[in-house]
Amino acid sequence: MTRDELLEIDRAHVWHPFTPHSVYTGEAPLMVVAAEGHELVDADGRRYLDAVSSLWCNVFGHRHPHIDAAVRAQLDRVAHATFLGNATEPAVTLARRLVDLAPGPLSRVFYSDSGSTAVEVALKMAFQFWQQTPGGEARRRFLTLGNAYHGDTIGSVSVGGIDLFHARYGALLFDSIRAPSPCCYRHPGIASRVDAEERAVRELERLVEVHAAELAAVIIEPGMQGAAGVLTQPPGFLKRVRAACDAAGTLLILDEVAVGFGRSGRTLFACEAAGVEPDLLCLAKGLTGGYLPLAATLVTERVFEAFLGPPEAGRTFFHGHTYTGNPLGAAAAHATLDIFEREDVLAGLPAKVEHLRGELARLETLPAVGDIRQYGLCVGVELVCDRAAKTRYPPTERRGMRVCTEARRHGVFLRPLGDVVVLMPPLSMSPAELTQIVDAIEAGILAVC
Ligand SMILES: Cc1ncc(COP(=O)(O)O)c(C=O)c1O
């Protein structure tokens, strides 16, 4: 089919996620028909560098021969069999592999199928853990960061804090305790960024202490808050969160759905880079190299044991999805971990991170660039209409989207978060490709702002 025929069907019958359809129908979506390495190919045969890793999940490029072969080989065995009270080989062996790689005493793996469900599972587990732990019954609440994003299911939205996405559902949600995000680009009335960050961290510590008796868990995205616009965290932040949780006797859930699998530019998991061990760890996106919807919630034996007992005691975790532990996804995950090991991927990342930092430096002089935030191989370039006053563009102008649309004319596919242009390249991108992406962003900003 031609691009126009496909678009006609798309416009007539498809409802796209996070997409205002009144605008979508006027814009020109990329109609992807194939991909190769780091490039997406559209219906007209044009190629674009996938600078957002197909929404932050692709790790080693598209159609990677090793991952392709692993999925094909698994297809010859079994595509899917239930994991409810049952097991499949690749998912079982993957659990052992994840536990071996994960930090500290995480020893059990509960599979699901998206980042949202990995978080939903962690929240329900933490809640139920305390209900089944003598003396813990009052621990029913969660503490989360301002501007947090942990997914779109009702539990994960309840610990979210992005008004545009979440406010509409207020009446449906449970009430979470919110600590300020420690990224202080826009903190009114505080002269230094360091002071603002310190003040935010102290407020979090205070809230954890004040609410200690009722806290089931603190949930944090370590390293940076991606969907909030790549809001970075000050050094030592996560260690202080862990210490506050320990002092309050509560659990720490780390959501590494976006930052796991090398995004930190240093370690496989972001919490390792920070020297922190969580009680529950949520993984998805990069787990399968960006191939298939598989997610995992890892927990300590202490958490798991609270769910043991005779069936009639009602301690079982009654949660599961049809495609839980899907063997094709598990095969893709094995292959992804093979590549990390065989190619010593992590060792090559710091040089890429620094190369990217160097390239981004030239954007700093552009008047429309208010802030550039980088965490490993995650970048947010925040556009403003007045740099000194940090004034936002009117949302109706859709500057972020227009910059990304312009970048496409330079062969780069990007998707912004409002007026933050987000760059989340596959780990395997070359320095030259990273330069091409920054060139395209620069050209986009110059053309649109
Ligand atoms: C930190 C974080 N948690 C959870 C999610 C939700 O993941 P999914 O879209 O796979 O449900 C995302 C998605 O971007 C995320 O960035």
Strand order, largest beta sheet:
4-12-11-10-7-5-6
Estimate the mean pLDDT confidence.
Answer: 96
Summarize the amount of helix as a percent range. Answer: 25-40%
Rg calculated over all Cα atoms: 22 Å
Q: Which regions have little confidence, pLDDT < 50, spanning 5+ residues? A: none
The number of helical segments is 16
**Small-molecule binders:** pyridoxal-5'-phosphate
User: What does the largest sheet look like?
Assistant: 7 strands, mixed
Shape: globular
CA(first)-CA(last) distance: 36 Å
Structural class: alpha/beta
Describe the structure.
This protein has 449 residues and is α/β, with parallel strands linked by helices. It is 38% helix and 16% strand. The chain is built from 16 helices and 16 strands. The strands form four sheets. A seven-stranded mixed beta sheet has the order 4-12-11-10-7-5-6, with helices on both faces. A four-stranded mixed beta sheet has the order 1-2-3-15. A hairpin with a 2-residue loop joins β13 and β14 (378-383). It starts with a helix and ends with a helix. The mean pLDDT is 96.
